Amino acid sequence: MNATDGINPKAMGKVAVLMGGFSGEREISLMSGQGVLQALLDQGVDAQAFDPARRDLGELKREGFERVFINLHGRFGEDGTVQGALELMGIPYTGSGVLASSVAMDKIMTKRIWLAEGLSTPAWRQVDSVEQTVAALAELGAPMIVKPAREGSSLGLTKVTDAAQCAQAYALAARHDPEVLCEQFIAGDEVTCPVLGTGAQASALPVIRIVAPDGNYDYEHKYFTDDTQYLVPCGLPEGEEAAVQALVLKAFRTLGCRGWARADVMIDARARRPYLLEINTSPGMTSHSLVPMSARSTGLSYEQLCLRVLASASLDNPLPVPHGD
């Protein structure tokens, strides 16, 4: 019995696969969305592509869509805005709800919550000038990561090794978002861990260890080259994979995430302690993406994964059925 047994593709109704959108990750979203759309069509789901940058979201209601697979990344798709619109229209959607989506998109707010719950994340400073970026480097030490607080796919990210780089790093991050985050660099193993499910039923999939050229897992190496190694099984020392999975599950539940997500983690090379970097509530589904790669290692195909995620579509607050006066 596989993970999609009992899911009737026809029962999913008319499905919109949201892709494209307005964010800096539009190109990746289109790649992800086309893959998901084809996978759903291949299984007999009545699915159609829907690009919010080209069509009014209100058409989802007017055209009778009954379920939405969100394949938008970044702002206006992964940050609670689209989720709120779908709540008002009463159309169930994949992934986290309004609050969890909004919080998870904001790396600074995410860190505050994780720290309040005792979950490990690298030390950080929020900055709004070059001078504050230089001061953060003095406090956090080199190397330091400078990045936009609300952006994904490593867009606007710089690894700073000395104060002379701070001006350019700050300017690049601030172009993407007025809120800029400086973060302590954790040297060690870079891993990622997907989660499927909701609440007590949520479970962590196998951890993937990422080995990028010169440790530089940037936008190009994420999506457009084959130079990066993805190791599943991850090959971590005994017990470490289970520790990462437990940490990621806590991070997922603490933010109130649901359906699916993927958390990125660094493991300190000396202390072997895992540190949460961020959580993605609308993970990529391209040929290079990590959630399908991890799922595949458990025997769950790309097509089965798409159907399982679609079947988990829900609403924060289903609207009451209106009664006549």
Distance between the termini: 49 Å
The tally of helices reads 11
Please tell me how large the radius of gyration is: 20 Å
Portion of residues within helices: 25-40%
Structural class: alpha+beta
The largest sheet is: 6 strands, antiparallel
Query: What does the overall shape look like?
Result: globular
Uncertain regions spanning at least 5 consecutive residues: none
Percentage of residues in DSSP E strands: 15-25%
Query: Element order, helices and strands?
Result: EHEHEHHHEHEEHEEEEHEHEEHH
Number of strands: 13
Folded structure, characterized:
- The protein is α+β, with helices and mostly antiparallel strands.
- The chain is built from eleven helices and 13 strands.
- It has helices at 26-42, 58-62, 81-89, 98-105, 107-116, 130-140, 166-176, 219-223, 240-254, 290-296, 302-311; strands at 14-18, 46-50, 67-70, 124-127, 144-148, 158-160, 180-184, 188-196, 203-204, 208-211, 229-231, 260-268, 274-280.
- Strands 8, 9, 10, 11, 12 and 13 form a six-stranded antiparallel beta sheet that branches. Strands 4-7-5-6 form a four-stranded antiparallel beta sheet, covered by helices on one side. A three-stranded parallel beta sheet has the order 2-1-3, with helices on one face.
- Strand 8 and strand 9 (203-204) form a beta hairpin.
- The protein starts with 13 loop residues before the first strand and ends in a 14-residue tail after the last helix.
- The model has no long low-confidence stretch (mean pLDDT 93).
